[in-house]
Amino acid sequence: MFGWHGKVLRVDLTNEAVSVEEMDPQVAKDFIGGRGWAIRYLYDEVDPTIDPLSPQNKLFFTAGPLTGTPAPTGNRYMVTTKAPLTGAISCSNSGGVYPTEMKRTGFDMFIFEGKAERPVYLWINAEGTDEAPRVEIRSAEHLWGKTVHEATDILLDETDPKARVASIGPAGERLVKIASIMNDKHRAAGRSGVGAVMGSKNLKAVVVRGRKKVPLAEPERMKELSRDVHRAVAADVKKGSTLREYGTAYVPIVTNEIGILPTRNFQSGVFEGVERITGKVLKEKYLVRPKPCFGCPIACGRKSTLEGTVYGGKGEGPEYETIASLGSACGLDDLAEITKANYLCNELGLDTISAGVTIACAMELYEKGILPEEDAGMPLRFGDGDAVIELVEKTAYRDGFGDLLAEGSYRLAERYGHPELSITAKKQEFPGYDPRGSKGMGLLYATSNVGASHMAGDLAYMEVFGVPKKIDPLSLERKPWYIKHFEDLFTIIDAAGLCVFLSIRYLCDGTYDVMPTRMTEMLNLATSADYTVESLLQAGDRVYTLERLFLNEAGFSRADDTLPKRMLEEPMPEGPAAGHVVELDEMLPEFYDLRGWDENGVPTDEKLAQLGLTRRSHR
Amino acid sequence: MPSMGPEFDALPTRRGRSPWILWNRQEMQLSEIPVTLKLFATFRRYLPPESQGGVHDLSVPAGTRAGEVLEGLRVPVDDGVVILINGRTGAPQQVLEEGDVVAAFPAMAGG
Q1: Is the CATH number 3.40.50.150 carried by domain B6-106?
Q2: Looking at the predicted complex, does its ipTM rise above 0.90?
Q3: Which residues of B touch A (CB under 8 A)?
Q4: Which pTM does this prediction carry?
């Protein structure tokens, strides 16, 4: 096989046994890789009704056919599982260097099943290019309780300094439902509580070292095409690259201008302190240098420092999503406080988006007099940076009130009798775009297979950022089509092992239809799969639809494809989106129709037949 | 303000604005209107040095289009620019009105 190694590593943690399986070439092509392969296995092997934190759940680390190839940004991996935060699936994506190293072990996918009796870590060493990789399950008792940074340093010491580490922190160990899996210390497969699933299996870390080259169908032409894309990016960077210069931290000023920057638990989309939390401040005060993922010409990552502030320390970030959630959503206008909370999340293994929006929910409950101060253990006023920093730590350790925050904002707000104040879809916290002012994002949050997520089909590219073209965020026109298309497109990008930042701009056709032309070409040069643009989009649709079947069988239907009351009934109070709500009912029927789902949100038999999918009876 | 004579006093004044301006707008189309320009991200470098916090207040002749204001500061107005007018999606050919806030930034992925 080309592009894919065609090898799957299965790790039975209960019996501490590993085995290697061959991937069926037809399945490889039909499901592309990454997120696609994972759902094929998850659907076939995991009962959708199980408790996500039980040993019956399985955890998938998957690379795509372009991961570890010369394809620009071909350096992403996916974490898929039944998610504890939502009860749906997770599709959490991360970059850094780890994904390439993982692919170079000679495996495309790791499957973790069962539960180890004691804390363990996995050491996969494929240093020798010709020999079979050595796979060891080792004790992690000495690592349990350690932060991500501490554990990573110890693991590099006792394996290979050139190895790469994906690890959970104290949050994952304590089954915190918003716990992340961190790789390369600072990069996160963050969402839906994937870290808790790893913790529930007593799996502290997965360490990889590999030198196996990815076999390519057309290596020379692949190099040429990659060079062309690199050149196009380099030319833009020369003109002045916003992402290189400011990172995603440049975004708050933009979302604030159109009135969708989450402010005080989404009570507004306009934040008076925005000038103090934007990329310019990060650049002038805390930036050390831009830090690219492996082989990336953009370099949106931020190596930053808080030395010289009351907090001290160094790390990476913050990204836009973190600024919106731990910042404006909590009313914080001090970038040092936000950065400190970000560092803590990375070290303790917490998703910054869910952590911030959960704390924001607690603050609204407190300010409305619903959450008593004696429960919280402190006053929880919007804008109190010390409270946010303290609560991040308490959440990760399930300490005191943190034990409630660790369950995410929905369960917190429900406990106090006001679930409507939780700004979530399918119990997952919203990212940094208030959908009342970006209607496509509203439809996306409501229908996404992973709950509220921008990465499930980020139409903010067009509604906010003008990539590849600008469309009106307040209009409903063509939004159902766009969301269906973007969900399929982002599924392909995730499955291929690419990063969305580059893919939408440089690997699509630049028109309002956003067709993945160069992406198709690149996948064919890597795999010889002979995709056409149409068959590739259909493969994206196939993956997305199979994910939906898993959700349906887990009990999800139209009733779950919804948004909090605030988004549907409370008009945005101020700013350019003032007076707007999300007209979900106007978009949903057309969206279901385009997806080939019936009025209950279930894929029709006809649709399944078109995609070559069949329902399976689960046990 | 001293009286400018009966022909001016007879003109209606709105929102305390000088009758001069009203007269100019109606008769000669020569009046200027105040607008605010905000340039974000890498476009900040096009702002004149006297501007503060990425914001530049200026007067432009009535009838000026958003694209003309940007071009006046040498901002490249092409496919790669996103223009917002009062926070709503704008276009280079859009004629500006008094008090409009024009924001522009290079189209670029975010989030």
Answers
A1: no
A2: yes
A3: 38, 40-42, 44-45, 53-54, 80-82, 84, 86-89, 103, 105-111
A4: 0.94
